[in-house]
Structures are given as C-alpha cells and as structure tokens.
Design brief:
alpha+beta; eight-stranded antiparallel sheet; 24% strand
Length: 996
C-alpha cells in the first residue's frame, strides 16, 4: 500500500532564512545595510546539469599491484593507469588500498593517497579523534566474514562486495573507473533494477529515495528545501531487496567522508562524488547469526559498529516542549505556562528563541524585557512545578565595536585574547562574517582551549539563567554574507542583517495552510487583501537594496592549485549560484591548528563539533547528569551527544507529511531524539493543521511546538479544537512514556530504532517499501495520522494480517477487521488520531498527568495484546532518568502464554509505584480468521473462574481482585493488584494464571 500526497509537495515549503527577528523591544538601534557587493557571488551551474562538463568516467582509472595480505585482509598500491585526467582537480597518481574484514558483519575499503604531506593530511584523512573510525575487532578474517571483496585489474582496478552465504552482489564498481583528484573523487556502483534505497540524511524527500534523485551534502541555512541539501550530512544508505517477497535481504553502506559531496541515484547505478577526502567505505551485511538479514539489523550494525550508540536522554525530555520566536517578555512566558495549565494540556519545558538576548548576543539578557533576577525567579518557578527551561544559543559570537568603549562583549573579548576563532586567510586575522547581532566570529573547536572557553561562557551564563539544556542553532555554520565581510567595518557594529526580519515594517506573514480558504473563508480573504497591500507598499519603497550576483563559469583546475571557494566540480548547493560561500563561512577560512585546516575540509563538521563542545560544557556544569542538547546541524555520530530538530519547516500539510520521512531517516542515522517544529515554523498555521500536527508529533520522540515572529501564536491552548486534540494525543503519549523510554534504552544499548517504518517491521511485504504515511513507534504501536485538510477519515493498512498478525484499537481495545493488503477507511474526527496495538505485545503503562514527573509517580498497569497463538511479550527498562552512569537499573521481562501472565525482574533500581491493574485483549477468537504458528487461537467464551497469583515467593489469595470480561471483544480488565504490590510493582517476579 502507498498513500499519495504529491499534491502537498507542490506547496511552498518555505524555509526560514532564520533571517527574521525584531530588535529586542526597548532598545534603539541604527540599521545600516550591507552593500550589495558583500553578497556578490558567482552564478555557477551544478556540474550534473552542465552539458559542457567533462565526463570523469573517461579518466584512466588505476591498476593494483604489490598486494600484501595480512591477518584481516590485504593492502595494495593503486597507480594511475594513464595520463593525468584532471577532470575536476589535480590527479593523485599513487594511492594505497586497504581492505579490512573488521568484524563478521563489517567490511572496510579505504583508498587514500600514498604520499601525504603533513599539511595535506586533513585534505584526505578524516581524523579518528574527531569522527569514529571503526577498526579490526582482532579476530575476524576473510574466511569468517559475512562478506567478501573480489577485484580485477581488467581493464583497470574494480571491485565488488559479495554476500558469502548466497553470493549476492551488494556493491560493484565493475565497468567503471575510480577517479581520485585533489578536489574530486568519484566512484560508481552498479545497482539492481528498481532498487530500494533509504537514508542519506538529511533530506526533505520521500522516505524511499527514487532512482532519479541527487542527494547533495553541504550543511546550509536554507530552510527545509524539498529535494535540496539542508542542515546535515550523514552519508549512509540502507538497501532492501525483496527477492519475490520470500527472502528479503538488507545491507548498508557508509562513506566516512565529511567533504561537500553528492550521491547521484540513477536507474542502473549510484555515483558517489566528493570534493575531497578519501574513500573510506564500510559495508554492513545486515545479517544475524542465522544468516538472515534485515533493515533493522543493518541499521543496528551501523550504530554499534560504525558511528557509536546514541545518548540516553533524561526521562523528562520525552514530555511536551513549547517554543516561540516572539515572546516579548517574562509576562508573556507566564501567560503561556498558565494557558497550558488552565487548558489541562501538559507542558514539560519552555524554550526561548532570540527574544531573551540583548541585541541577539549569546549569553546575555535583554534587561528591558527579560531582566535578571526576575527571569531567574521565573525559571525557578518552572522547576518548582516539575517543569524545565531551555534557551537558544547561536553558533556565532558578536564582535565588539572597537570605536565604542561601551560596546563591550565579554565572550568575544575573552575568546579573542586566547585567539580561538576561525581565521581569514587573506588578512591573517579573525574571519568576520555576519549574523543576527552583526559582524561575528566563530569558535575554532579544533583547539582544546576553545572547549574550555565555551564551557566557561555556558557555566557563567547559567548563574543567572538556570537552564536545563541548550538549543544550538545556526550550526551549519551560517553567515549572512559572503566572505569576511566585516573586515575593516567593525566600527559599524551592531549592524542589521542584510534582509528584512519578521516584525520589521511590511514584514507580517499572511500565508496560511492549504484549505484555510475553506474553513476560514472570510479571514482568508482579508489575509489575501492585506498581503497584496503589503507587497505593493514593499515594491514602492524597498527598505533594503536587492543583493546582486555576478556570473562565472565552472573553474578549470590549475596544476598544483586548489580553488577552495569555487572548486572545479560544482555541487548542487541550494544557495544562490550554488556557491559554497553563500550563507556560510567561506571555504578558504582557516583553523588554528598547525596545518591551518580549512573550512573546505571541515564545513560539514562544525555542527557536530559545537554539539560535542556543548555536551561537555553541560557535563561540566552538571557533573554526572546526562546533558540535553538539540542541534540543527548534525553529522554521522552526532547522536552520541545531541538530539536534532527538523529545522525551519513551514505551516503546510506537505511539510507535516514529509516530517515523517525526515524522522525515519534520523532513526536510521543514530539520532533518535528527533522531532519537527510542530504546527510549522514559518507562515501561519490554523486550527485544523495544528490539531493534526499536534496529534502526529505526539508520537515523535522529540515533541516541540515552535514558530516564527510576525505570525499568529500557535500554542495548543489557543484553539479549543487544538487543545482537545492535544489532550487526547498527549494522554496516549504520556501513558506510553515508560514504553518510549525503554525504546531509548534499546537504542542506546543495541542500536535499535525508536520510530520505525512499516517496511522494517514487515520486511517481506513489498507493498510497504514506499509507505511512510503510517509508522510504528517501536515494535508495538502503529500510528495512522491524518495528513490532508478537510477530511474526517483516514486510510491505512494493517500489515501481516494474512500471516497471523492481530491489531487492536488503542482506545476501545477491539480487534481490527482487515484483509491482507486492504486499505481500511477509519473514522478520524479532528480531535482523534488512530493508534493501534500490535498483537503479541505486553506494554507497561502509567496514568497521564500534566508533567512527566507527575506521570512517573503514578501506579503502573499492564496492557497485554495477544497474537494469533494467544501469546505476548515485552519489556520495561527503569532507572533514575537523570544520571549519566547509573548506580541502579532494573529490566523487567513480560510474557503471556497458556493463560498465564508472568514477569521477571532483574536489577536493583527501586520503583515505588505499585502495579494496580492488568488488561488483556485478544482473548476472543481472532477477527481476521488468521492462524498463528500453532493454529487458530480459540479464545475465551466466558470470564475466568479462578485466578492464581504468585508475587515474589508468596502465593496470594485473589478473592479481592476485581475482574470484568467483555466477551464481545475478548477483553479482560482486572484491578486490585496494588494491594499485593504496594512495595513496588517490580520488586519481585510475578505470575498470574487464569482458569476458564
């Protein structure tokens, strides 16, 4: 089954130039404009669209020689097999090949220059102390590996990766040459017909990456551009092959390279091109011990054996978060907190955008609107109510005006004294770009001293602003001009960004979602008229001059020269002119290490490094506590230290729809703490879109509502319908917090995913390969959101019903009637999201309250949903929810079989809450007439006549238990268990047996 929403893709998923904010109220500010020349950039054609570009596959390739075997593979020399090609750079004539059978499931192929001058090291080799570089496990050999590499020198060096147990070819460069130049690397692999590839995050695209897609990796501040590069670069893909739906196989490929790059997915192959670095390819078999392979196993191997396991986040972070750019003062914050409580809608954490800062400068407070100590008292009041606070921290640092003695800014001056900022190679001084506060610099996180400076700034700021985590923005890193535009102009600081901001004159947003003209016809007409009037006024009197560009063709490689700002190969960067220096630090900017490493080599790692630095700063601030950070730009392995949000999306149905795909790719990428800006960041939402989005995001790991200035407020309590939709969806989410936390435990320890594609859980169903309008939360919860306007039904499938799967409605616990592959129409009024429980699941629940802490202190209940054999299983992980290293944990394992529910409990963590009730559904005969592995499950025709119970080592009388059996839907509800578990639900093992 595939649900189509292409109509919504056509909507303008406008990105935020996060270029839109007012000067803090009460502060007067001169607003000079940057000259147009500052933004002047060449207009280049992406090489993939340039018919005049050379065909790099006409290059000579390489020949292998001097093969030398070792305990875990072999090495060889690769010599260029003809004259230098110089397609898009200077050829490297002598390469080293390393083939390593690093583990049973992982094979590594590295190709890099044999002779590297010290100053060229970072051009080619990504240091292992920055990004994890897996190595040999000390025991695997070619004979014990799942995979093998075959190669040939006819006509030039080419290789392929084979799965040993069935000789399946997973990757093959046969028929293609390898190209290795100082600014261009290319490798082509052949692909099977109609292949199924997923991943290559971050992208705003279908979950299934079509066979006509180009994925560009160059971190950029351009909003959520559909099919373009966005904030992050995680060069990993997972491929599924269905083999006539009888023996599905899966494998993964990870290219450990941080340079700007492109992956060209085409009908018969994938072309991998980068602007530098090395080939450092990791192939994951996806195989289990029994020889079978799966997408989930492939992803887990990438996490456990590639990039590192994701962080275990604090328990409270699973609650609902509210942010806004445009909360004018502390009184407004209090109104938001009160509004949620008065509407009986949970609120866990409040987030501030730029409004808190003095002139947009990190680590400051606008004393006119967020004065200390009043602001401190407000945050402490949140803490007193078991709520939390997280502020934004931008990645740039304002530069003090040297001609203005009163314009002092400590973070810059302290960092400048230590010379910790990225440099301009033309002047040797700091690189002065432009951002919210004006001309700015960026920390050089290659220097250990930068960590110490960053930590001190964060710790000092916490003294007056007692936050609980940090939100890292603009970490691509973003600059609003091209080049070191502040050089010689620092006396103009503070300077307005070179574009208008929301809230500036003539900058109110009148855009509303699709369907708004149907549900709000009068208001839509007024908005259209106001928008036209504003556009007319803007045209008549532009406030800022339009930026200009110059035209320049593709540069030709020059022997011995690397053109960093305009490399010969032009990637399809979404910025104007496709230039690398637009809205970013220029590629030729240099770091302060001994080899003056450039941003050309490190651009995609800035977000990764600042997230790591913030993690360690928080660890220093809160010793022993798990740091909580959410960053905008991430790289492979970022999940070890940070969460991630989807960036500057829009209040459109298409943006909401594509957030599911974005989330699933982040699950693959080892960043499970992911969520989108609920209800949309840019543009205005409406009650209908916001209701549906609040429902959807309730089942994303990171659940936050956030929007921009100059639009209407979209806190959930502002519409009665949105408030009701939120209450209902959050009731489900907060009931499931223990389940979600357990999913995070398995992500943290085993590389499992929190959200899951249906195709991952049902790998032999080829009809699910493109489906993501539905998704799973873990293995047990199926979510079917409404993703289009003006409807009160939704269609979805119930996978596996033809093979014995059973599904139950979350709310009624009634079993679903569905046929194999049937697209079932379900009722979906505005305040309702369809949620179903998979048969075979045992889930521990708690009673939803307004905060996570209150919820955590309620009693437990168990929901048992039986499969076609009348069985079920599950688990629950418990700890203190805060500590980085736990002194005590507990893992509870549940099972149901032969009319007995049992659980065993291991560990010393004490959960004082009792178990008060048990609900079992599926006791009637399966609705779908499906058969389980042991035949048709007959079910119960009446309530049980007797219940026996053993808790710990004691047998208990069960006369006081209350039981209600609904024979019509096969649901048994039993209460009164808390009298036996008053010392804590899981302090001992339990067994409950029922007799008909």
């Amino acid at each position: 089954m595939q649900l189509y929403y292409s109509i919504f893709w056509c909507t303008a998923l406008l990105g935020r130039v996060k270029g839109q904010s007012l000067t803090p109220s009460g502060t007067e500010r001169v607003i000079p404009t940057l000259s147009p020349q500052v933004n002047a950039l060449p207009s280049l054609t992406p090489t993939i669209l340039d018919s005049s570009a050379p065909n790099s596959q006409h290059c000579p390739g390489y020949k292998a020689s001097n093969l030398l075997e070792n305990d875990y593979g072999f090495t060889a020399d690769l010599m260029i097999a003809g004259d230098n090609c110089q397609a898009f750079g200077n050829d490297i004539s002598h390469l080293t090949l390393e083939v390593s059978y690093q583990s049973k499931q992982r094979l590594n192929v590295r190709i890099y220059p044999t002779h590297i001058a010290p100053e060229q090291e970072s051009w080619y080799i990504l240091p292992s102390n920055i990004v994890d570089q897996p190595e040999w496990d000390g025991q695997t050999t070619a004979s014990s590996s799942d995979l093998s590499l075959e190669w040939s020198n006819d006509p030039t060096f080419q290789f392929r990766i084979i799965r040993n147990n069935n000789k399946e070819e997973l990757f093959s460069t046969y028929g293609h040459v390898i190209v290795y130049e100082d600014q261009f690397l290319e490798l082509v692999t052949n692909m099977i017909d109609d292949y199924n590839v997923y991943g290559l995050a971050e992208n705003i695209h279908d979950f299934w990456l079509s066979n006509n897609h180009t994925q560009t990796f160059y971190a950029t501040d351009a909003g959520n551009t559909v099919d373009g590069n966005v904030y992050s670069a995680i060069p990993f893909y997972q491929e599924t092959r269905y083999h006539n739906s009888t023996d599905t196989t899966s494998h993964g490929v990870y290219a450990r390279n941080a340079h700007g790059q492109e992956w060209l997915l085409r009908e018969n192959g994938i072309t991998y091109r980068t602007l530098g670095g090395s080939f450092d390819l990791y192939f994951y078999s996806g195989q289990k011990d029994d020889g079978s392979s799966s997408a989930l196993e492939t992803i887990a191997q990438f996490h456990t054996q590639g990039i590192g396991l994701p962080a275990m986040h604090m328990y409270w972070t699973l609650g609902f978060h509210q942010a806004r750019w445009g909360w004018e003062n502390i009184s407004v914050l209090q109104e938001v907190v009160d509004g949620y409580r008065n509407a009986d809608v949970p609120l866990e954490c409040l987030w501030n955008d730029l409004d808190i800062y003095d002139l947009y400068r990190d680590f400051t407070n606008n004393e006119a609107t967020y004065p200390l100590p009043e602001f401190t008292r407000f945050i402490e009041s949140l803490h007193a109510n078991n709520q939390h606070y997280v502020p934004i921290v931008d990645s740039n640092i304002y530069v003090s005006n040297p001609d203005n003695e009163s314009d002092t800014y400590g973070p810059f001056e302290r960092g400048a004294d230590l010379e910790l900022f990225i440099r301009d190679p033309t002047t040797g001084g700091f690189y002065y770009g432009d951002n919210w506060p004006g001309f700015s610099v960026w920390g050089d996180f290659l220097l250990p001293a930068t960590q110490q400076w960053w930590s001190k700034e964060i710790i000092d700021w916490h003294n007056g602003t007692p936050f609980d985590g940090i939100w890292i923005d603009l970490s691509e890193a973003s600059s609003f001009c091209a080049g070191s535009c502040g050089y010689g102009r620092l006396t103009e600081n503070p300077i307005h960004p070179p574009f208008l901001l929301p809230g500036d004159p003539l900058m109110f947003d009148y855009n509303y979602p699709e369907g708004f003209n149907v549900t709000n016809a009068t208001e839509a007409a007024s908005a259209t008229a106001a928008s036209a009037s504003q556009s007319s006024a803007m045209s008549a009197s532009p406030v800022l001059p339009s930026p200009t560009t110059t035209t320049r063709g593709r540069t030709e490689p020059t022997p011995g020269v690397r053109n960093l700002n305009f490399p010969p190969y032009v990637i399809n960067n979404v910025q104007a002119g496709h230039a690398l220096g637009k809205s970013a630090i220029a590629p030729n900017a240099t770091h302060n290490n001994q080899y003056n490493t450039t941003e050309y080599d490190w651009h995609n790692l800035f977000g990764y490094q600042i997230s790591n630095a913030t993690y360690h700063a928080l660890l220093e601030l809160f010793p022993g506590r798990r740091p909580f950070t959410v960053g905008r730009s991430v790289f492979a392995g970022s999940g070890k230290t940070t969460g991630h949000w989807g960036g500057d999306n829009t209040s459109t149905w298409g943006s909401m729809f594509l957030s599911i795909s974005q989330a699933l790719t982040m699950m693959m990428s080892g960043i499970p703490m992911f969520g989108a800006d609920t209800c949309g960041f840019a543009r205005n939402t409406d009650f209908q879109l916001c209701s549906r989005w609040m429902e959807l995001s309730a089942f994303f790991p990171f659940y936050r509502n956030h929007n921009v200035k100059a639009t209407i407020g979209q806190e959930a309590y502002r519409w009665s319908s949105v408030a009701e939709a939120s209450r209902r969806a959050m009731k489900v989410r907060y009931s499931l917090l223990t389940y979600m936390y357990t999913l995070f435990y398995y992500a943290h320890t085993e590389g499992a995913t929190v959200m899951r594609a249906l195709a991952w859980e049902f790998p032999n169903d080829v009809s699910l390969r493109k489906t993501y309008a539905q998704f799973m939360l873990g293995p047990s919860i199926l979510v079917t959101p409404v993703l289009e306007p003006n409807v009160d039904t939704v269609r979805g499938v119930f996978p596996g019903v033809g093979e014995g799967e059973r599904w139950y409605d979350w709310y009624s616990l009634e079993e679903v009637r569905a046929g194999p592959g049937e697209n079932v129409t379900m009722e979906a009024p505005l305040e309702h999201i369809n949620v179903h429980v998979r048969g075979g699941s045992v889930i521990a629940l708690q009673q939803p309250r307004l905060t996570v802490e209150e919820t955590k202190n309620t009693s437990y209940s168990l929901l048992v949903a039986l499969d076609g054999d009348g069985k079920a299983s599950g688990s629950l992980y418990l700890d203190d929810g805060v500590s980085l290293v736990q002194e005590a944990t507990r893992l509870v394992t549940f099972s149901y079989a032969d009319n007995c529910l049992a659980y065993s409990s291991e560990g010393s963590y004490h959960a004082a809450q009792p178990l008060d009730n048990v609900t079992i559904t599926g006791l009637g005969a399966p609705r779908n007439n499906s058969t389980g592995r042991n035949g048709l499950y007959k079910g119960w025709s009446s309530a049980p006549k007797h219940v026996s119970m053993q808790y710990g080592k004691t047998n208990h009388s069960t006369d006081t238990l209350h039981m209600n059996y609904d024979v019509g839907i096969g649901v048994l509800r039993m209460s009164g268990v808390e009298q036996y578990t008053s010392d804590g639900a899981f302090e001992g093992d339990m067994k409950l047996c029922f007799e008909e």
